[in-house]
Design goal:
Layout lengths: L2 H18 L5 E9 L6 H12 L8 E7 L2 E4 L5 E3 L16 E5 L3 E8 L1
The chain binds zinc ion.
Zinc ion binds next to loops.
């Protein structure tokens, strides 16, 4: 899976930004991960722990916020959370004219360092 690559680019992004702000140690990194990105939080934590040794992230903790996938029915405007079966059918009127409203988020919310 792409978690290791993903985490590498996250750490790289934070490291570059930290260098610009003269931050030498990172204490905390917060990520927001949408359900539809298919990135597994456990794998991300594992990748983070594997990559952080000997870097400015050595003592940092990783916080992950998962965002559910949200759909909105275009027929009756009903909003609902996408279930594990990824059925794109409106639970209230049965229409398949459904638009994905959320769940594709994948970004660094913030990081803390000194
Ligand atoms: Zn509907």
């Amino acid at each position: 899976m792409h978690e290791l690559t993903l985490m590498q680019s996250v750490l790289q992004t934070v490291e570059l930004d930290a260098a610009q702000h003269h931050i030498e140690r990172i204490n905390k990194v917060k990520l927001v991960i949408g359900q539809l990105t298919m990135a597994l939080p456990d794998s991300l934590v594992f990748a983070f722990d594997a990559l952080k040794t000997g870097t400015i992230f050595a003592n940092a903790s990783l916080v992950i916020e998962e965002r559910p996938a949200l759909c909105q029915c275009q027929s009756c405007q009903q909003e609902y959370k996408l279930d594990d079966f990824f059925q794109f059918i409106c639970p209230s009127c049965g229409s398949s004219d459904v638009k994905i409203e959320g769940g594709k988020e994948l970004y660094i919310d913030y990081y803390e360092g000194e």
